[in-house]
Structures are given as C-alpha cells and as structure tokens.
Specification:
Length: 372
C-alpha cells in the first residue's frame, strides 16, 4: 500500500517520540512491502518561533494532501506562565482538529499484564482493564464563545453542542461497543448542565438502533472516582470534549504511564494519530520520553487502513518491550540506561526479527554481548 503521511512533531518531546514512530513505520513498510512517504510540517510553539503562527497554512495544506497525519505534542512553558499571550501553541492543535473536522477522538486504555505493578493503583483493581474512550473533539467549551470584560475582571467560556455534533460521535461509539463487550457509558453532568441533558436526550433516541448495546449513564464526578476504584466496569466511554480530556489523562494512572496512551482522531474526511500526552518541555532532548504512545498511535494509523497484521506486529513488539523492561525511566526500575531511541530501536528490531529469543533481545539492547 502507498501511504502519504504528514508528520507534525511539534514541541518539547514531540520530535523525539515521533522520530521513533516514524522509524517503526519505516520498518513495517520494509517488512510488508509498503511505500510510506513522510512529509514533515511545523505546528505549535516551534511554528510560532519560525513563522509567527501556531498553524501555518502550509501545514494545513500538507495535512489535507496526506492520507493521514501523525502528530507529536505541542506546548511550551513560556506560554503556560503567561496568561496574556495572544498567540499560543495549543491554537495549532485545536485549529488543526477543527480544520480537518476531527470530531471523534478515540483513546484506548489497556492495563498491560506485564506492568500492572507500575501503576500507583492496586494490581487486583486494575487487572484486565480495557476501555475505549470516545472523546468529542471539535465542540463544547473548547470551541464555544469566549469573553473577557473590558476591565479584565470577568471572563466566560461557553459549552455549546448541537444535535449533529452529538449524533455523529454517538453512532461511532455505539458501533465500537458492538464489537467489544457491548456496554456504553455516557459520562456527563446532566444533573447541572443543559448541554449534558441534550447529550442524554439524543443518546436515548439513538440507543434503540443498537439494541444489543447496554447503555449506562454516569456523572463526570462519579466517573472520575469509579475509573480509579473499579475501571474494569467500563467498556466504551462516550463523553464531551473537556470531560474526555480530563478523564483520559486520569485513566493513564491505571496503565502506569501517560507515555503509553495513544489516540486516533477521525472526521468524515481526514484522520490524525497522536499520543495523548503533552510536550513535557522539561524532559525534551534528554532521551527520557516514552515513545510508546506515539508508536501505538502509528499502530492505530495502520488499523485505519486495514493493515491489521502490521498493526498487530507493532503491538506485539510493544508487549515484548514491556515484558523485557526495554522501557524508558517512567516505567523502568530495572535498567537506568534505556533511552527514547533505544526503545524505538528495540521495537524496530523486533519487527525485523520477531522470532528472536528474549535473551538475545535483552543482551543486544543492554549493550551486552550476545550469548546465543
Ligand atoms: C490533549 C491535550 C490537548 C487538549 C491540549 C494540548 C490542547 O491535552 O490532546 O489531551 O486539551 O485537547
Ligand atoms: Mg489532555
């Protein structure tokens, strides 16, 4: 298959982790005889530095011409500490989501058996957790009207949703639930917010079209607690933009590191794949950023094109790296010398030689001589 992939590394650790995802995609192309071409473009703080804009038109064009977009991370502490900044890196990502119509953001949360002890939560609580979060991505408070009074003392952000915005992602979430444990939980704040009540009304209307899916409702405050106490109860979670942002980051505690959580963003025409973590500026260029979320985002990119064997080989390689603890320091208490690129090298090697022994992999990647 020929794929033209737009690569937007962005800021902070973005370039390092995306370099590993590209390395892995190149290994897949080689192994399975595909032709993947990569076109890099600027976004976020690095785009502001070079062009004055967080989302240059050229970047939009590159993305629209591509079959898919691979996105790293954006943000920079210098903007975080300045509430008066008019131009912000995040506008690049939000602008891109809007411009490409990426309304459905899908975030899998899987408790990997081999690293259950890396979570701050108890093993028995998190074991077998497998959740798919459907986060609405182009509506709600992120994109509603904002005001700031002239005297600077009053501000507002509006959370607005339309029927169309709710319906299109709801159908996707119901369909996903049909292929899984057939349970869909709508997370909202319908006891307070009118927009949440609209979500409930529309979901109730749609539900009869999916009679084999069991529909549940949960308030966001309760869901924030239940996700930690009993994450196994969830199958597919459907929620609006900001609740999904917060809940998915909370869910990373179950998995053990936010550096493991990948995502896919779909619209009617375009698709983008990105780790859920941010730019983590203070870790940039130190080789300590976990590339697995980006590598798993690349696997989701392959899923999107029906390249199932390819995606599953990446996931097997990731499982192996977790099993052998060929992982960055966020997850590693055994070895202290495993860098971002070393994890990428390991996964690349596994793709090239999946039949290698565990011992061989460990020796090679710890820089020791191979015994076998
Ligand atoms: C995410 C991020 C973004 C969001 C930021 C960087 C704008 O936190 O993708 O989860 O809030 O959507
Ligand atoms: Mg977030």
């Amino acid at each position: 298959m020929k794929l033209n992939i737009a690569v937007l590394p962005g800021d902070g650790i973005g370039p390092e982790v995306i370099a590993q995802a590209v390395k892995v995609l190149k290994a897949i192309a080689m192994e399975f005889d595909h032709v993947f071409t990569f076109n890099t473009a600027l976004v976020g703080a690095s785009a502001i530095d070079k062009t004055g804009k967080p989302l240059p038109q050229e970047t939009i064009n590159t993305c629209k011409k591509a079959d898919a977009v691979l996105f790293g991370a954006i943000g920079n502490t210098k903007y975080d500490i300045d509430p008066n900044a008019k131009v912000r890196p995040e506008q690049g990502l939000l602008g891109l989501r809007k411009e490409l119509g990426l309304y459905a953001n899908i975030r899998p949360v899987i408790a990997y058996e081999d690293i259950l002890n890396k979570s701050s939560l108890k093993k028995k609580q998190i074991k077998d957790t497998n959740i798919l979060i459907y986060r609405e991505l182009t509506g709600g408070i992120y994109f509603g009207k904002r005001t700031l009074s002239e005297d600077g003392n009053t501000a507002s952000d509006t959370c607005e949703y339309s029927r169309l915005e709710i319906e299109r992602i709801a159908h996707l979430a119901f369909k996903a639930a049909q292929t899984r444990k057939r349970k869909l939980t709508l997370v909202d704040k319908a006891n307070v917010l009118e927009s949440s009540r609209l979500w409930r009304r529309i979901i109730q209307e749609i539900a009869p079209q999916y009679p084999n899916v069991k529909l549940h409702y949960m308030y966001i405050d309760n869901a924030a607690m239940e996700l930690i106490i009993n994450p196994r109860q969830f199958d597919v979670i459907l929620t609006e933009n900001m609740f999904g942002d917060i809940l998915s980051e909370e869910a990373s505690v179950i998995v053990g590191s936010i550096g493991l959580l990948a995502s896919a963003s779909h619209g009617d025409k375009y698709a983008m794949f990105e780790p859920i973590h941010g730019a983590y500026t203070k870790a940039a260029n130190k080789g300590i950023a976990n590339p697995i979320a980006s590598i798993l985002s690349a696997a989701m990119l392959l899923d999107h094109f029906g390249l199932d064997d390819e995606a599953s080989l990446i996931r097997k390689a990731v499982d192996k790296s977790l099993k052998l603890q060929i992982t960055t320091p966020d997850l590693n208490t055994k070895y202290d010398n495993i860098s971002t690129s070393k994890v990428g090298d390991f996964i690349e090697d596994y793709i090239n030689n999946p039949e290698e022994t565990n011992l061989n992999f460990t020796n090679i990647h710890l820089g020791q001589s191979t015994i076998i």
